[in-house]
Design brief:
It contains 4 helices and 2 strands, in the order αβααβα. It is mainly alpha-helical.
C-alpha cells in the first residue's frame, strides 16, 4: 500500500486562511461591543442625590483608595452604584440556541464529508 501524502496548500492560501481567521476572531470579540450588545448594560438602579462616601456605602479605607485614584464622591457615583442588567428576551435565547445547533450540525456534516474524503484517498472506494 502506498504511503499517504496529504494535499499541499500554497503559501498564499495559508496567508489568506490566517487573515480570515484573525478577522473572524476580532469580529467575534468586538462586533458585539460596537453594536452595543455587550459590556454597556450597566444601570444605576437607585441614584443618590447627595453623593458622599457614606451615602455610597464606602468606609474610610475605600474612600481613601478612590481618592488616591483621583475620584470624588460625585465622579465615583456611577462607578460604585452601577449594576449589570441581566434581563434577556426569550426570542434572543431561542435564536442563540438555533444558531448553536445549526453550527453543530454544519460542523458535523463538514466533518463527515472530510472524513469520507480522507478514507477514500487513503483506502480507495
Amino acid at each position: 500500500m502506498a504511503h499517504y501524502q496529504p494535499p499541499k496548500q500554497g503559501k498564499a492560501s495559508q496567508l489568506i486562511d490566517v487573515v480570515v481567521l484573525v478577522i473572524l476572531t476580532v469580529g467575534a470579540l468586538f462586533v458585539p461591543l460596537w453594536l452595543g450588545m455587550a459590556g454597556a448594560a450597566k444601570t444605576v438602579a437607585a441614584p443618590v442625590t447627595e453623593a458622599t462616601w457614606e451615602a455610597l456605602g464606602q468606609n474610610a479605607a475605600q474612600a481613601a483608595k478612590y481618592e488616591a485614584l483621583g475620584y470624588t464622591p460625585e465622579s465615583a457615583h456611577d462607578l460604585i452604584l452601577a449594576r449589570f442588567d441581566y434581563s434577556f428576551s426569550v426570542t434572543a435565547l431561542l435564536t442563540m440556541i438555533a444558531v448553536i445547533l445549526l453550527y453543530y450540525f454544519l460542523i458535523l456534516r463538514f466533518s463527515e464529508v472530510e472524513y469520507r474524503e480522507v478514507i477514500s484517498e487513503k483506502f480507495g472506494e
